[in-house]
Design a protein that fits this description.
21% of the residues are buried. The protein has no helices and 18 strands. Residues 6-26 have low confidence and may be disordered. The chain folds into two domains: 30-119, Immunoglobulin-like; 127-217, Cupredoxins -  blue copper proteins (Immunoglobulin-like, Sandwich). It is mostly beta strands.
Amino acid sequence: MRKLRPFIVMPFVLAAVLLPGSAHPAARATALSGTVGPGFTIALRNANGIKVTQLDPGAYTITIDDMADIHNFHLKGPGVDERTSVEGTGKTTWNVTFVDGLYTYHCDAHPSIKGSFRVVNAPPPPARLNGRVGPKRTISLRNASRALVKVIPAGTYRVVVKDMTKADNFHLKGASVNKRTGVRFKGTKTWTLNLGEGSYSYRSDAHPKRRRSFKVIKPPTP
């Protein structure tokens, strides 16, 4: 009769695989610190110790140090209503999510001890345009794709000009805009400009034929 060999189970390790669409670890919450007492003071500060006056929406971890048994720290606003006890002292940590709106904090026993801050969506950074004059007899204004600017929608733009010659300058003009580098200047200038509808040109004042133009049109309706 044939003998059967014993079946040996080998140890193995299960590898954790993150499949497409599976959950990712949550983004780390921004840390804030609040204090109340020991005197008649109350404050909410960021990680740099600066008093909070405005925040972006999102998740926050707030550590409250209640240093007086005659005060408490009461934080209130859209979706948030957290407080320490008046009689207690010590540190408390809250995990909160702030949305657009006004938030206040105060002592319930002494309402005149108070503070507030706003949560607002930060506007997107302005689109960047890259101007250049020199080092040879050239002048240009290009977008982020390095294409020459010909037609762009009205709006706020960050114009970064690299003036690489002392023989020419970069002079941008149109609508209510009139910005230039110096002819003898050589370096980089950055302008944040609101470009309204109309025709614009940029040129060298030293050599006016070194010139290009573009149009700013009404932005498309969302």
